[in-house]
Amino acid sequence: MKKIYLYGNWKMNMSLSSTASFAQDFLQALREEAALTENTEFCVFVPFTLIHKAVQEFRPFAVGAQNVSEYDSGAYTGEVSADMLKELGVNTVIVGHSERRHIYGESSQQVGDKAAKCVENGLVPVICVGETLEEREAGKTLEVIREQLDAAVEKLPDKARYLIAYEPVWAIGTGRAASAQDAEEVCAFIKQRVNEPVLYGGSVKPSNSAELFSQPSIDGGLIGGASLVAKDFIAILKNYRNTCV
Ligand code: PGA
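Above: the input record for the complex with 2-phosphoglycolic acid. Below: its predicted structure, written as tokens.
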């Protein structure tokens, strides 16, 4: 049974009270079906304001952050440093999510700096890469992925631990996931270049996880919308596991 990373990206959603009730449902469901925790790495990436609460509520499972500054400290209003995240009990951070790249104009260079800052501080970056629909239709998918990937990892030390999340921009929040074949093609390309765990993200849900996670180069999912309800989030793993027996 291969190891599966079930990573939930809450984006700018949830509150202190819904974090507590999600965690209760999540932990209860895993107590009832402890086999689901075998060979699974869970992490929920919550807004900064919920980290403290989530770390307490999700114990012993991991809580991640959705962004980090590329700087250590100083006059960077509104930013949060790797050190600050570590202090809160975070050990994994999403960097370069397409919403950061496209809405906030983060460059591949900046994503590389953020990933390097994570590693320098003992945090594991989950580096997101993905093409737009226009780029896919122009046949540029692998070229775009290569450019984003190389810029993101070039400043990392040789033995750095990190993950890559392949998230085609056109599949995020649209209900239209990449086909398992298309996702596998890109994830295999990534794996050949970096040999680290590769997650697929973009409209992952209970109905498509079995096919996606069964692909040889896909090690799990970075899940947005379907990670906001504990039973849906867990059903994503359950449905995949049911196909493995
Ligand atoms: P989605 O988001 O599952 O809602 O498509 C995935 C992501 O943006 O990480």
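Notes for the reader.
The two ends are 9 Å apart (CA to CA).
The mean pLDDT is 97.
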